[in-house]
Amino acid sequence: MPTKNKHTLSAKVWIEHKGNPLIGKGGAEILTNIGKSNSISKAAVTLNMSYRYVWNYIQKIEKAIGEPIVETYKGGKAGGGGAKLTDLGRSLLAEYTQLENHMKKVLSAPTNYDEGATLKGKLSKIEKENSITKVTIKLNQQPTSITTTIPKEIFEKLNLKVGDEVKAVVRQTEVKIEKYSPFTL
Q: Which domains does the chain have, with CATH numbers?
């Protein structure tokens, strides 16, 4: 008697800037809590993180992109200072949230685990390394890109170039890249 799989698909997503991770789930939680509490220290307490860690995380992002994502302000003699997200901070948080929600939707869709979930898009970046090739695909009709690695030999057989329409088949343990043709399913 066959048994149903007791596992689920999952993925980690993040926003990159110039090829480096910028904000992931933890960063989104930090920005969300600063936005809710208008305070870096209250956000840190809520997340069970040190103030220094949260402050350094914000500084790291701001240094990477060259613009503030959090604006701090001092209170009067009685205190009352605080922090709020800048337009850029709110935009980064919204973009991450949209990306995370999209991936949750893709991964929660009923799928045959052998076939996987298929995502279509355009090849936007190719980085050749020793025995692997890192490819980035801008998904169709989404503000989202996915990046994966494929063996050099397979990449060469596919004869892919930037701008090619491709489909990514997301399986439990891999992402398979194929050249896309509207005549294939």
A: 15-108 (1.10.10.10), 117-179 (2.40.50.100)
